[in-house]
Amino acid sequence: MSQEKSLRKKIRELVRSTVNEESFVGSWFRKLAKNVEDREFARLLAQQPELQKRLDKIKKSTEKDVKSLEKYIKAMKNRKNPKYSD
Protein backbone atom coordinates (compact mmCIF):
# COMPACT_ATOMS: atom_id res chain seq x y z
CA MET A 1 0.00 0.00 0.00
CA SER A 2 2.79 2.44 0.78
CA GLN A 3 4.38 1.75 -2.63
CA GLU A 4 1.10 2.58 -4.29
CA LYS A 5 0.83 5.85 -2.36
CA SER A 6 4.38 6.84 -3.23
CA LEU A 7 3.79 6.06 -6.92
CA ARG A 8 0.60 8.13 -6.90
CA LYS A 9 2.49 10.98 -5.27
CA LYS A 10 5.23 10.80 -7.92
CA ILE A 11 2.64 10.80 -10.70
CA ARG A 12 0.86 13.84 -9.21
CA GLU A 13 4.18 15.68 -8.95
CA LEU A 14 5.05 14.85 -12.57
CA VAL A 15 1.65 16.04 -13.78
CA ARG A 16 1.89 19.28 -11.80
CA SER A 17 5.39 20.01 -13.09
CA THR A 18 4.34 19.29 -16.69
CA VAL A 19 1.30 21.54 -16.42
CA ASN A 20 3.36 24.35 -14.89
CA GLU A 21 6.02 24.04 -17.58
CA GLU A 22 3.42 24.09 -20.34
CA SER A 23 1.71 27.15 -18.95
CA PHE A 24 5.09 28.87 -18.58
CA VAL A 25 6.13 28.01 -22.13
CA GLY A 26 2.72 28.96 -23.49
CA SER A 27 2.73 32.32 -21.74
CA TRP A 28 6.30 32.95 -22.89
CA PHE A 29 5.35 32.26 -26.53
CA ARG A 30 2.23 34.46 -26.28
CA LYS A 31 4.33 37.30 -24.87
CA LEU A 32 6.95 36.83 -27.57
CA ALA A 33 4.29 36.85 -30.30
CA LYS A 34 2.75 40.04 -28.92
CA ASN A 35 6.14 41.77 -28.83
CA VAL A 36 6.88 40.75 -32.42
CA GLU A 37 3.43 41.90 -33.51
CA ASP A 38 3.87 45.28 -31.80
CA ARG A 39 7.30 45.80 -33.35
CA GLU A 40 6.06 44.81 -36.82
CA PHE A 41 3.07 47.15 -36.52
CA ALA A 42 5.32 50.03 -35.46
CA ARG A 43 7.66 49.29 -38.38
CA LEU A 44 4.77 49.31 -40.86
CA LEU A 45 3.45 52.61 -39.49
CA ALA A 46 6.91 54.16 -39.78
CA GLN A 47 7.22 53.05 -43.40
CA GLN A 48 3.72 54.10 -44.49
CA PRO A 49 2.55 57.43 -43.03
CA GLU A 50 -0.70 57.23 -45.01
CA LEU A 51 -1.58 54.13 -43.00
CA GLN A 52 -1.39 56.19 -39.80
CA LYS A 53 -3.68 58.81 -41.37
CA ARG A 54 -6.24 56.14 -42.30
CA LEU A 55 -6.10 54.69 -38.78
CA ASP A 56 -6.64 58.15 -37.28
CA LYS A 57 -9.65 58.67 -39.55
CA ILE A 58 -11.15 55.34 -38.45
CA LYS A 59 -10.45 56.17 -34.82
CA LYS A 60 -12.21 59.54 -35.09
CA SER A 61 -15.32 58.02 -36.64
CA THR A 62 -15.50 55.24 -34.06
CA GLU A 63 -15.04 57.71 -31.21
CA LYS A 64 -17.96 59.71 -32.59
CA ASP A 65 -20.09 56.55 -32.74
CA VAL A 66 -19.12 55.57 -29.21
CA LYS A 67 -20.06 59.00 -27.88
CA SER A 68 -23.48 58.84 -29.53
CA LEU A 69 -24.04 55.34 -28.13
CA GLU A 70 -23.03 56.49 -24.66
CA LYS A 71 -25.56 59.32 -24.87
CA TYR A 72 -28.24 56.87 -25.99
CA ILE A 73 -27.46 54.43 -23.18
CA LYS A 74 -27.47 57.21 -20.62
CA ALA A 75 -30.85 58.41 -21.90
CA MET A 76 -32.23 54.88 -21.73
CA LYS A 77 -31.02 54.46 -18.15
CA ASN A 78 -32.56 57.76 -17.08
CA ARG A 79 -35.86 56.90 -18.72
CA LYS A 80 -38.45 55.53 -16.31
CA ASN A 81 -39.55 52.18 -17.65
CA PRO A 82 -41.08 49.81 -15.11
CA LYS A 83 -40.73 46.86 -17.45
CA TYR A 84 -36.92 47.11 -17.48
CA SER A 85 -36.20 48.66 -14.11
CA ASP A 86 -33.35 47.23 -12.06
Write a concise synopsis of the structure shown.
This protein is an all-alpha fold and 86 residues long.
Helix and strand topology:
Blueprint: H1 2-47, H2 49-78
Kindly describe this structure.
The chain folds into two domains: 1-47; 49-86. 88% of the residues lie in helices and 0% in strands. It has helices at 2-47, 49-78. The longest helix has 46 residues, at 2-47.
Indicate the radius of gyration in whole angstroms. Answer: 27 Å
Number of domains: 2
Low-pLDDT parts are: none
Secondary structure tally: strands: 0
Q: Major β-sheet, in short?
A: none
Inertia-based shape: flat
Separation, N- and C-terminal Cα atoms: 59 Å
Report mean pLDDT, rounded to a whole number.
Answer: 83
Task: Please give the count of helices.
Answer: 2
Features:
single chain; 86 residues; mainly alpha; 2 helices; flat
